[in-house]
Amino acid sequence: MSFLLALGLAAADSVPAPRPAAAPAVVVHRQPALPIVALRLSVLADDPAGYAGAGHLMQHLHLPRLQDRAARVGGRVQAERTSDAVVYTVVGPASELGYLAETLQATLAAPAAGTPEMLSALAALNEERGAEREVAASYIRGALRARLFPQDLSAAGTEASAARLSVARLGDVWGAMYRPDRVSIVAVGDVEIEGVRRAFRDVAAPATRPLEAFADTVRALAADTPQATRAWIARGWSASELDPAAVTVATRLIRTQLRRRMTRSAVEVEHWWTHDGQAVALVVATPDSLVRVARSSADAALATVAGALDDRAVRDAAAGVRREMLFFARTPERMAEVLGAFADRGLGPDAAQRFFAAVEEVTADDVRAVLAALGENGVVAVDVPAQRLRRPS
């Protein structure tokens, strides 16, 4: 079996289990070389109206118990709130599949939390909200994302939603966002499809009461621009209706071209892809003396790439994307993350493999079409000026 087949990104090596009505989606990628398993459980994120941050609050409340239980069999746990889902991943011995699955299934019920645990979790969310707005790198991405995906609120929620969550019945909040058919389970390691299916056979829906809806509001980011020692420049283009593989290759080409031209600036170009849509985000940190040049280069980014485009550049970019995917997916938990991210976007169980294959087929004409469409969609611009220090008089 080739290296690509072993990783499961070039062939349909991941096996979807048949999915009964109102049941979780299950995907298994068997890797028998090591006696471990990475189990990834995700619930599509849809915080109830007025309760932004609810999913991430549940994670803070569940995590200590999960870590304690996993540690008993030598396992480890990580929790993440993405734009698409509330995600838990546990890695441990494959022989403890049933125990690890039971541990994860506990997250599908509202957590039992006393006042100290609740206060600690709310304080953690408040700290995360502050960090998002105080550091220029996260601030400018948050501001850009808010313009491109206004419905995608921070995973940490808002001050108003935190106040509601502090007095709400957690069972009702969780019941408003959870159903078994919103759950995806990915298993990577020395396990069989039937064993995983048995381990998660008891997933059920909770009994809840209706939850009153409220409007979530977020303080305008422009009102609290962070201090920065460098100037930050961000440009974003909506790409929601475009082919994801071609967008990914175009994103890499933009990054390569700008890094060659802007050697004294830090340049990141990212393909943002969630169930809310797609976008290309360009973020530049530059010395204050180069702001004018950097802003001009950022504004001309699409034209710069289009002018230098040829088949060889596209092939090299596509090969680079595929190499990065393979390198990222080198461990069971990373493989589970790759497969799960595609599932969380509402795509099929073999979507990661199909995307991996599609990237290799992207042509220069495909990239030109993406660049033209991005230009037609218009640019979103966010700038954070460098802090100007005053000399003492």
Write structural notes for this entry.
This protein has 393 residues and is an alpha+beta fold. The protein has two domains: 3-199, 2-Layer Sandwich (Cytochrome Bc1 Complex, Chain A, domain 1); 225-384, 2-Layer Sandwich (Cytochrome Bc1 Complex, Chain A, domain 1), CATH 3.30.830. Helix content is 45%, strand content 19%. It has helices spanning 3-7, 54-71, 97-105, 115-134, 136-148, 159-165, 170-177, 193-199, 244-261, 291-299, 301-307, 311-328, 332-344, 351-360, 364-377; strands spanning 14-16, 25-30, 36-44, 76-81, 85-93, 183-189, 231-238, 266-274, 277-286, 379-384. The strands form two sheets. The protein has a six-stranded mixed β-sheet with strand order 1-2-6-3-5-4, with helices on both faces. A four-stranded antiparallel β-sheet has the order 8-9-7-10, with helices on both faces. A hairpin with an 8-residue loop joins strand 1 and strand 2. The protein starts with a helix and ends in a 9-residue tail after the last strand.
- Give the low-pLDDT segments: 1-13
Q: Whole-number average pLDDT? A: 88
The name CATH uses for the topology of the largest domain is Cytochrome Bc1 Complex, Chain A, domain 1
- Provide the β-strand percentage band: 15-25%
Strand order of the largest sheet: 1-2-6-3-5-4
Alpha plus pi helix count: 15
Question: How far do the termini sit from each other?
Answer: 72 Å
Compact overview of the structure:
This protein is an alpha+beta fold.
Element layout with pairings:
Elements: H1 3-7, E1 14-16, E2 25-30, E3 36-44, H2 54-71, E4 76-81, E5 85-93, H3 97-105, H4 115-134, H5 136-148, H6 159-165, H7 170-177, E6 183-189, H8 193-199, E7 231-238, H9 244-261, E8 266-274, E9 277-286, H10 291-299, H11 301-307, H12 311-328, H13 332-344, H14 351-360, H15 364-377, E10 379-384
Parallel strand pairs: 2-6
Antiparallel strand pairs: 1-2, 3-5, 3-6, 4-5, 7-9, 7-10, 8-9
Helix pairs in contact: 2-4, 3-8, 4-5, 9-11, 9-12, 9-14, 9-15, 11-15
